[in-house]
Structures are given as C-alpha cells and as structure tokens.
Amino acid sequence: MLPRSKLHKVMSRLIPTEKILYGKKVTSVQQNDEGALVICNANEIYHGDVVVGADGAYSSVRSSLYKQLKAK
C-alpha cells in the first residue's frame, strides 16, 4: 500500500501530466493483444500499457479486474 499523497508525488514526477487522468468514472477495464483498454462512463476509451487504479476502497477498477479473473 502506498499513501495517496506519495503516489501523487511519484506520478507527477515520472509521468507526463497529460497521461494522468483524474475525475474519470471507469466502467470497464479490458486487455487485448495491444495492451490495456479503459472505458469510462461517457464512452471515453483510453489505451495504454499499464492501468493504475487509484480510486479508493470501493475501486471500480479492481472490481472490473476481479470479474475478469474469476471468469477465467
């Protein structure tokens, strides 16, 4: 576990600001041959190599990933 304040500091130093998205409501996280796919509630779709779900104790990102793991 990493305190949120430290996570923000690390992310802001190492990752370009346009790559960090705040205030998004994630509805689904998927994986394909090209990497990760994140779908948000406004039908916004984001592609990337890594998804960091820092959305708290009732994480929708974690929930989406667990559903996929259970299905396998």
UniProtKB/TrEMBL annotation:
It comes from the Eukaryota. GO terms for molecular function: monooxygenase activity. PANTHER family: FAD-BINDING DOMAIN-CONTAINING PROTEIN-RELATED (PTHR47356:SF2), FAD-DEPENDENT MONOOXYGENASE ASQG-RELATED (PTHR47356). This is FAD-binding domain-containing protein. It comes from Actinomortierella ambigua.
